């Protein structure tokens, strides 16, 4: 396969797709699978509760910095060669993470895991677009999206099960068989792509890395150091702004910038970046809220939480499989609108959650949200690249993944900050009514109204639960409003139409 346009001549397309998706799911799972194992790691690695979070931070920052350089590395060393190297490196350092004997070694191995894993998701998307004709891009993106979206959903559940039944080390060891099978499949069947030598803009890469790395570090560390009351956060914010600003100026003025600015002339791609940012916020922000809510307020164990949240993944799978088949018949923009409306409906339902509700409300809202997310992700991932020149595809998929991950990080940070702050405010407001002059308190708990310490402690626990529940509901309302605000901008996307090119491959036009 010499060029991305010759996808029709690729044999073993099904086997290639299986191998690509194994690698993609392996990497997507690792974004969340280690989270639930952190408390167990703390004792085994001799780390403090504050320092153990570097296990997550090192991976996130390394992956964020290395994602934008995927396009240049693929052109310089070959897409197939880079993909195989990424899978091998990711698998090896996964094993080393499982064998880590101290916090320092774990952080180092996780950092290298992030370095190698950064290229897996954008390259898998690139190859799926390359090996499928344009009329099958919707189905290809449905398969790819299923792995991307189900990974973070299943990660905490699988991680909790492995940690409880085996050891936290199996959270990383499980990647070995998956990585080996994926490597063998791709080594045997993945077609090679002609290399394209281009100069490396080290200064542009350094400035983008500074901006992305400092931003990710700020978002990940903010909750631990109380955000802008910490000098560290101000320094990281300053470095991030400086890096992005210098990178922007350099990109517009350099002769051969790190990222060709022509890529941003495609309106579908730029609009797709904006929407995938919103999707990143909605996907992981809501997922970051639900497990602690179910654990703290409802007292669910880890495995039960996974079972309760499972239907969300089922809804996503159903929507993706259906949308992938009907995309060529239905305007993709209409599907995106319907998906956002379903997502908003689910968040509206979640805004009515209460400590007295049963599982049905959680299950039904999860299925609806999964359907909505699936209906948005597939057409968005397809239309964003439908009118883009194929030579920009690898750089574009890298940016697509980077923006989605940044949206996820920002969304999780924002809703977490609001949750903590609003819980404190709500607790103060509710506590004001706990006094001996309130007849409702005398009716509910005469002992507490009379000043009994044990009864007051029980009442305070009830106030804490109510304060947290109100804060969770407010976060769900915020995400719902963000979803509704995004809907009108869907029509900035242009509907692609296929037409023949000189070489016989379809080219995209815009109406």
From TrEMBL:
Gene3D superfamilies on file: MFS general substrate transporter like domains, Multidrug resistance protein D
Cited InterPro entries: EmrB-like, MFS, MFS_dom, MFS_trans_sf, Sugar_transporter_CS
Transmembrane segments: 52-74, 81-101, 107-129, 141-162, 168-190, 202-219, 231-249, 269-290, 302-323, 330-348, 360-386, 476-493
Domain Major facilitator superfamily (MFS) profile, chain residue ranges per copy: 16-498
Domain of life: Bacteria
Single GO cellular component term: plasma membrane
Topology within the bilayer: Multi-pass membrane protein
Name by which UniProt lists this protein: Multidrug export protein EmrB
Species, as recorded: Mesorhizobium delmotii
């Amino acid at each position: 396969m010499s060029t991305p346009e010759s996808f029709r001549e690729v044999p073993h397309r099904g086997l290639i797709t299986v191998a690509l998706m194994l690698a993609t799911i392996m990497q997507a799972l690792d974004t969340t699978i280690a989270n639930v194992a952190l408390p167990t790691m703390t004792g085994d690695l001799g780390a403090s509760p504050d320092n153990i979070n570097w296990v997550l931070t090192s991976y996130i920052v390394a992956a964020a910095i290395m994602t934008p350089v995927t396009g240049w590395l693929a052109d310089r060393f070959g897409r197939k060669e880079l993909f195989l190297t990424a899978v091998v490196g990711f698998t090896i350092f996964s094993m080393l993470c499982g064998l880590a004997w101290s916090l320092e070694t774990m952080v180092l191995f996780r950092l290298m895991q992030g370095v190698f894993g950064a290229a897996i998701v954008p390259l898998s998307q690139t190859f799926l677009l390359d090996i499928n004709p344009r009329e099958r891009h919707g189905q290809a993106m449905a398969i790819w999206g299923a792995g991307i979206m189900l990974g973070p959903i299943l990660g905490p559940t699988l991680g909790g099960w492995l940690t409880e039944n085996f050891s936290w080390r199996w959270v990383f060891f499980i990647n070995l068989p998956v990585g080996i099978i994926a490597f063998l499949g791709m080594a045997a069947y993945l077609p090679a792509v002609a290399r394209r030598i281009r100069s490396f803009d080290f200064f542009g890469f350094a400035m983008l890395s500074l901006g992305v790395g400092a931003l990710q570090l700020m978002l990940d560390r903010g909750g631990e150091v109380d955000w802008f009351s910490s000098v560290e956060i101000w320094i990281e914010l300053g470095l991030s702004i400086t890096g992005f600003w210098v990178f922007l100026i350099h990109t517009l003025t350099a002769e051969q910038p790190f990222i060709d600015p022509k890529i941003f002339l495609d309106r579908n791609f730029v609009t797709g970046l904006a929407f995938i940012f919103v999707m990143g916020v909605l996907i992981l922000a809501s997922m970051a809220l639900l497990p602690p809510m179910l654990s703290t307020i409802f007292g669910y164990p880890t495995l039960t939480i996974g079972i309760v949240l499972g239907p969300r993944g089922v809804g996503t799978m159903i929507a993706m499989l259906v949308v992938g088949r009907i995309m060529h018949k239905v305007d993709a923009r209409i599907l995106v609108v319907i998906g956002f409306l379903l997502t908003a409906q689910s968040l509206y339902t979640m805004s009515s959650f209460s400590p007295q509700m049963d599982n049905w409300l959680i299950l039904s809202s999860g299925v609806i949200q999964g359907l909505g997310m699936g209906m948005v992700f597939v057409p968005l991932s397809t239309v964003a690249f439908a009118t883009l020149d194929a030579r920009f595809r690898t750089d574009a998929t890298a940016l697509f993944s980077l923006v989605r991950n940044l949206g996820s990080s920002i969304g999780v940070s924002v809703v977490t900050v609001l949750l903590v702050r609003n819980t404190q405010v709500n607790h103060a407001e509710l506590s004001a009514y706990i006094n001996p002059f309130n007849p409702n308190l005398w009716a509910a708990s005469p002992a507490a109204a009379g000043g009994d310490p044990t009864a007051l402690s029980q009442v305070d626990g009830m106030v804490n639960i109510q304060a947290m529940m109100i804060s969770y509901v407010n976060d769900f309302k915020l995400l719902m409003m963000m979803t509704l605000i995004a809907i009108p901008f869907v029509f900035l996307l242009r509907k692609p139409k296929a037409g023949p090119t000189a070489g016989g491959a379809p080219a995209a036009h815009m109406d």
